[in-house]
Amino acid sequence: MRNDKSRIRDIIIQFYADVVKNNFASSLISDYVFDIYVDRNEVPWLLDFNVWGRWTESLLYTWDEILQMKENLPSHTVLSSESSEYNLYPELRIVDSPTGILSDPLSTYRAPIDAVDLATKESNSFENFMNLCKKPSQLRYDVE
Amino acid sequence: MSLHQNLLPENPEYSQVMACQFSSWYPTFSNLKADSKVSTTSSRKCVTIKSIVIKNLSPDFVPYVLSDGMILPLGATKVSSFLPQDCEGHETWSSSSSDSEGDEGQKHDDDEPDSMSEHTTRFDLADLTKQITDGIASLGGSVFPKLNWSAPRDAAWMNNGSLRCETPGDVYLLIKSSDFCLHDILYGTSQSFNGSSPGNTHVTHELVLRQWCNLWPSMEFRCFVANYNISESHPLDL
Question: Domain spans of chain B?
Fold first, then answer.
């Protein structure tokens, strides 16, 4: 896993230096986010570009950490493999424990299981659901 | 939380947003091949996934996406490619009574009184539907859709948990169900930008079809570039 990690990191750095850096937005934009895919032959594929900032999900990092790293970076130079910072940046963060991932950012976009039940179960299930909904409001009415 | 958060701008810069628009970067990177001196890329035809950008969207496209309900445009036959074959030929989402996924939106539509459906406008996006059909065919039969910036990842549950589209109906279903895509649609008119932006910040909406690839989510990496330096990267899979 450690070897894989270092190899993937090299592939990404190489791809950035060769392909992305001098071509994205004619090098007019200094801060951005891009997504790449490394296939089974260890060939990198460019997937997408995203805007630098909280509109882009920062996933395993918090934007705080990213900004901290940005501050620590030497500016306007590409790190070469000879430089002392090469081993520090970029950092490749991967999840190597099953509990490393705590939440799915897309989970809030799912539908409640009740909705699926309503649509798939026997025909009177919606009626039953509406009866359930009535009860709380009736309760409130009784209290008043 | 900390001081660093304040360093993030309140609004994105116009130039950044425009540069990240699909049609801004794709032509550059789809043409990168022989002229690249790099060993890893020189032998490759392309460094990114083959895609088609449909501009000049029909004037009805945005009203269609913004309209209530989940009704496919006229002529977008076959509701969804993961439905059984015998559903083919049904034109509307609500007419597919054998829908196996049992989406609640559809059933609610069915439950509406008839008078409601009479007032519902059926959009006719025949030209776009044809462009999507041709696009899907030229990209090998299946695609994943996105708009200027966003893919309808939040709507994948509508399409059997995947963004894979084989028919125009799949594409419409995903785009219309997605909040991410809705954000793209509304961007041009309501977004404010940091820094200088030209007076006219009108955004031309575009529909992008990208060739479908079975990607391992664990091998997708998000890379953050700060001051022209790549600062860190990690898998997109969460």
Answer: 11-235
